[in-house]
Every structure is written in C-alpha cells, then in structure tokens.
Amino acid sequence: MAKLSPQACLGALTRQQAPALFFPRLVTASCTPGPELSHTASQTRRLHHQICNTRPQTHPSRQASRPSTLPPNSNQLPPLPSTPYTRHPYTTTTTPQPPSPTIHSLFDPQTSTWQYLVADPSTHTAAIIDPVLDYTPTTRTVSTTTADALLSLIHSGGYTISHILETHAHADHLTAAFYLQRRLAAVQKVKPPVGIGRRIGQVQSVFGRRYGIDSEEYDGVFDLLWKDDEVFAVGGLSGEVMHLPGHTPDHVGYRIGDNVFCGDSLFHPTLGTARCDFPGGSAQALYQSARKLLALPDHVKIWTGHDYPVEGGPAAEPWTSVGEHRARNKHIRDGVSESEFVQMRRERDRHLAAPRLLHESLQVNIRAGQLPKVDESGMRTFKLPVKVQGEGW
Ligand SMILES: [Fe+2]
After folding, report:
1. Is 27 a residue whose pLDDT tops 90?
2. What is the Å distance from ligand 1's center to 276 Cα?
3. Which of 108, 112, 201, 324: disulfide with 132, CB 3.0–4.6 Å?
4. What is the CA(181)–ligand 1 centre distance, in A?
C-alpha cells in the first residue's frame, strides 16, 4: 500500500513511492482531499505509463528535426535530416531599468558636511547637492577652496551641471550655490538653476526680519521652488522631491534611483536624527518624515547631510541603508513610538548649543549663497546679536 499525494498524481513521485508503483500487484492511490481509489495492477500500469511517459513540452522547431523511428539495434545516432536546421526567431520582453547614478560624496571636515555630486553616467549630466562655502569666523574670511575642489571634480569628470540642489536653509555652514552657479554659467554658457523646497519663503521672512535684511535681497534668489513630490531630470536620471519637514519647515530630500539625499533628517544610525529646535522645526514632523524614509525598501540608501566622526574612530560615512536604520538607528529604529521620539528629541534639543556659524550661515543661505551687499562704507557686514549679562545697560 502506498499513498500518493496530489503532487505524485501530477508526476512528482517520491523515492519511496516509485518502486512500489513500478512493480506492484495492488496499489492504493489516495489523492487527498477525496475518496481513496483502489487500482488493479493493470490500472497501475496505465498510471505508470501516464506518469513516466509524460514528456516535457518540446520546442516545435526541435520536434520537427526528430526522426519518427530509430534504426533497430543501432547504437549510432540517427542521421540528421537533409534540410538544414533553421533557427526560429523569438522575442523576449525585458523591463527597462532606470540608470543608476554615479555618486561622488565629498566631506567637509570644517563643518562636518557631506556634499554630493550625482551624475548620470551615460550623459555626464550631474546635480550638486548642498555645496559648502568656506568661512573662517575668527578672521571673518570667505573662501572657496572646498567649492573649487568640487569644480575640479566636475571638470575632470567632464560633467555638465543641470541643477544645484539645497535640502534646506542650513544653519551650520554657508552654501556655495551662488558662487558655483556663476562659475559654472561662465563655462557651460547655461546657468544651472538653484532649487530648494517651496516653503523656503517662510524661513526667509523669519530670518530676514531677525537680521534686518531687506526682502529685495532674498526674494526670487532661488530659481526653482520645488513642490512636494515634484519630478525632475538629471540627464537620463529621474529625481523626485520628498518634503521632509521637522529640522526646518522647508526641508526636502531628493530621491534619485535607490538613493535619497535626506539632508538633516536622518544622521548615521549611531547619531540618530537632526535637531528640531529652529524656528518652524517640529519633532512630530521629523518623526513622520523619518518614518516616510524608513517606509522605503530596505536596500534604499539614505545619504545624510552631516556626520560627526570622533578622532581616532571610524571615518565619516555618507550613507546607510533603510534596513540598517530600521534595525539600529539610535533615535528612530523600528519600535520607537512618536511620543517616545518627541520626548527624547525635545529633551536633547534643550541642551544643544547654537551652531558655531548660525548667524553668518542664515544671512547667506536665505540669499541662496549671495553675500551681503557692499554698504556705503565699502564693507560687507553680518549682523551678530549680542547677549548681555548683568544689569544696568
Ligand atoms: Fe541643517
């Protein structure tokens, strides 16, 4: 007695079932669910025949070349047909894959900022993301060493820049967007537009008032104000804007292929997330933005805006996969609730010092990287608020 599973009925016999089926006297085959069936030896032979003589489907062109009978008692291969074998054309369907970008990541150790050059390898068209303008506060000197290194990379790679992209109005470094735009326009003969999220107007008006900057100096300085989920092209690459508020209200990320340039939302998993205590910042919004990023497939790379490597420790790392963040991000791994995150973030932000270049950064960055105008005295000046201790002033 042997039981035949439904698979065995379709020809997938087990090692135990096969001998009993080949040399049986009586076999009971039960194809569950259903009544048991009893087979006589002749029925079993028919079943054996049906199972063992079932041939895989053969390509019609190959069937055509098979002779109907083999020569008796012959070990020689049958002769090939006199007509030559004809290859039959066939078609296959492949889903076109979007090209993957070439990504250059450049770390500025002075401001712990990651800058990116994201290029379409087929057209050598590229976008710059969050470029840094050097500034030395002790001597109040602006310089372009870092931006010029980026220009060298663009030149050596033969790249044409289609966009200069800002993730937000940074408070910890000055953007080189305006400088790069002018330098690139001179070479390319076409000015690469500077893009930022459409809510930058809120940030410009808050800090324009705070620093006494005339709105004429920042209105219309950005060429592209991205709508949420807006799509753009960098050569043959497709980019998509992701609104990622929390650190600042205007904050966006840029998804290009399986890469998201997330600015200051997620940092390295050992660091967690960005602060939310700037005007318009929101820990709840950052939690939702982070979950939006972590809802992407696990293999997607999240390229961060900053890293803060410790001396003697591992080097700065530009990206971490979604899966790694979900497993071990210090602040927002899977399982951390919104209320837990908000409580942690608020408590942490209460003890953070102001960024070293806060005032200079904001006064340049709401102008898209333009410096303050030369005033009547022939100088460019930043406004720096003074904290007063004691009484009697
Ligand atoms: Fe920032």
Report:
1. no
2. 9
3. 108
4. 21
Q: Which residues pair with 106 in a beta bridge?
A: 115
| Among candidate residues 162, 156, 179, 164, the one with its CA nearest the CA of residue 116 | 164
Contacts 24+ apart (CB under 8 A), 52-57: 54/11
Q: Residue 240 C-alpha to ligand 1 middle, in angstroms? A: 20
> What tokens appear for 118 in the block?
């994201």
Question: Please, is 94 exposed, middle or buried when counting C-beta atoms within 10 Å of its C-beta (0-12, 13-18, 19+)?
Answer: exposed
> What spacing in Å lies between the alpha carbon of 225 and ligand 1's midpoint?
18
Band (66; pLDDT cuts 50, 70, 90): very low
Residue 125 CA, ligand 1 centroid: distance in Å? 27
pLDDT at residue 8 tops 60? no
Is 255 a residue whose pLDDT tops 60?
yes
pLDDT category, 64, cuts 50, 70, 90?
A: very low
3-state SS class at 313: coil
Q: Where in the chain is the domain with CATH 3.60.15.10?
A: 102-365
Q: How far apart are CA 40 and CA 26, in angstroms?
A: 5
The residue with greater pLDDT, 370 or 46, is 370
The predicted pLDDT at position 87 comes to 63
Q: How far apart are CA 336 and CA 94, in angstroms?
A: 41
Domain at 102-365: CATH code:
3.60.15.10
Please tell me the distance between residue 305's alpha carbon and the centre of ligand 1 in angstroms.
Answer: 8
